[in-house]
Write a structure and sequence with these properties.
Layout lengths: L2 H17 L5 H11 L2 H30 L4 H21 L13 H15 L6 H6 L5 H8 L4 H7 L5 H30 L1 H6 L4 H18 L1
Helix pairs in contact: 1-9, 2-3, 2-9, 3-5, 3-9, 4-11
């Protein structure tokens, strides 16, 4: 995957996270209903996005640091085991962290979002994309020489560029913020929480299966 396409993937994954009520929009709607204010809904979203970005950034930084230490083949195996293993963990343990009430500050919202994103393993979904990102010309070089060497891969993979990593987290977070905002406002203004009780999708299960698929994808890419 060349890096221009990776931006679309990062944004799409952010949108996927934004749809998940466990990532924050449901909390924002609840706060809005509590205060009977759409403004309360919108004000809750930036701190939630900030906490999500912190969780994602931690995983991205860890992958980037590990990339400079381990050979590419070893990093792929380790990443696949971690992502797949967390998917299994999510299937077996679906309880969410509970430690805040409904009267919360922006700091509480950011901290809650960080914990929830980390508990869901949100940053792990970006790992396959990070490991597949290559600058233009990488595939051509691989076709010419057969196999791209570890040292050459390290030179052409933008995962080694801090600016790329910061931008990746930013694009992902904007995708989440926009999607969560749209969903939260629509639910608050039009749908209401009653419909969610009648037509609920087990997104936790979908998320766990997605992590399992991501773990497999790291190995077979």
């Amino acid at each position: 995957m060349t890096w221009p396409w990776s931006w679309l993937v990062f944004a799409a994954l952010g949108a996927y996270h934004g749809i998940n009520p466990g990532m924050g929009w449901l909390f924002a709607v609840a706060l809005g209903l509590q205060d009977k204010s759409r403004t309360a809904v919108l004000q809750a979203l930036p701190p939630i996005a900030l906490g999500h970005a912190g969780s994602i950034g931690g995983i991205v930084s860890l992958v980037a640091i590990t990339h400079t230490i381990l050979p590419q083949s070893v990093l792929r195996i380790v990443s696949a085991v971690v992502v797949f293993g967390f998917g299994v963990f999510r299937l077996l343990r679906v309880r969410h962290p509970r430690w805040v009430g409904m009267r919360v500050s922006s700091r509480d919202l950011a901290a809650w979002s960080f914990v929830m994103s980390s508990a869901h393993g949100a940053g792990l979904m970006l790992v396959p994309v990070l490991l597949q990102c290559h600058l233009p010309g990488t595939q051509a070089a691989g076709g010419l020489h057969g196999v791209v060497s570890t040292s050459f891969a390290a030179q052409v993979m933008p995962i080694a560029d801090p600016g790329f990593l910061v931008a990746a987290v930013g694009v992902h977070t904007l995708g989440l913020l926009f999607t969560a905002g749209v969903v939260a406002v629509v639910v608050y203004e039009k749908v209401g929480l009653a419909l969610l009780r009648r037509a609920w999708v087990n997104i936790d299960l979908v998320w766990s299966l997605a992590l399992l698929a991501a773990g497999v994808a790291i190995l077979v890419q």
